[in-house]
Amino acid sequence: MKPRAIDRDIEPFLRVRKLRATVAAPGHRPELGERELVRGIDLDVWPGERVALVGESGSGKSVTARGILQLDPSLRLTGSVEVARQQLIGAAPGTVRGIRGRVVSMVFQDPMTALNPVLTVGDQVAEPLRLAGTSRKEAMRQAADMLDRLGVPNARTRLGAYPQEFSGGMRQRVVLAAALIGQPSLLIADEPTTALDVLVQEQILDLIVRQSDELRLAVLLITHDLGLVAGATDRVYVMRSGEIVEEALVDDLFTHPGHSYTRALLGAVPTLDHDPEVPLAPVPAAGAEPEQCLPRSRR
Ligand SMILES: Nc1ncnc2c1ncn2[C@@H]1O[C@H](COP(=O)(O)OP(=O)(O)OP(=O)(O)O)[C@@H](O)[C@H]1O
């Protein structure tokens, strides 16, 4: 695929520097010290760019995402997170609330837990607009348009339905509609397709890509599945044990992976010609093999 033109000479929209996230030791035992979940990472997303943050389960991807938007009060955050040059670490809670859902939206893995079972789909999609002062009638009109745009059939008549009346894939469309209706500049999508079956996974990922192209929406796609990354994103960060071990344009990562961990992750991605009788290469545990990242010129 031809690389998309992303202007990286301008300021990134999201600029994360030395972000560190720690939690107190379990059981209120301060003598055990803190546990470091994210260890001083740097990460940029430019306007309109689609960036993947990949790594195996437990590597710290979701903590990073929740840290960027300060969604987990148990995390102690240090470092810098700038959104459109506005510093969020140490900012007043109102500043971060003003960014969430409006400037930066987030969708999560499980669409059911993201939706409130006692509120109608229409009310939930329209909520960001209602909070911003839009009349109910206008907010509902825009909610129907957004659901329609995201491929929910008979969107107008289904505004009064409840989430449990929708299939998993349709629920994730509803969650996306609620995330996009406030016209954010950045969508953080944390494993948005993991809970869905394979066909629906593709549809949801296609939708995210299409909305990103049409609305010039930047996307930070968080996934453990490198197989999702190739056609959908421009650049990739590889995360392991709370650290970024590699960053590359997507094509370079697949053709010349620099870090032994990235190569192991790539080895674990099934290909079309993969013989199902042959087991995929396991990803080694952290510390199990020498860490090495070859200089790009030597790959
Ligand atoms: N609030 C928290 N308190 C204590 N530990 C946490 C907290 N949130 C996450 N962790 C731990 O931090 C580590 C990283 O978790 P994280 O959810 O970021 O992983 P991940 O890379 O997103 O993997 P997955 O895809 O499985 O969610 C895990 O060991 C997790 O148990």
From TrEMBL:
GO MF terms held by the record: ATP binding; ATP hydrolysis activity
Bilayer topology annotation: Peripheral membrane protein
Domain of life where this protein originates: Bacteria
Region (Disordered): 277-299
Pfam assignment, any one: ABC_tran
TM segment ranges: none
GO CC aspect terms: plasma membrane
Subcellular location as annotated: Cell membrane
Main localization category: membrane
UniProt keyword terms in alphabetical order: ATP-binding, Cell membrane, Membrane, Nucleotide-binding, Transport
ABC transporter domain span: 14-266
Family classification: Belongs to the ABC transporter superfamily.
Name under which the protein is recorded: ABC transporter related protein
Lineage, uppermost ranks: Bacteria, Bacillati, Actinomycetota, Actinomycetes, Frankiales
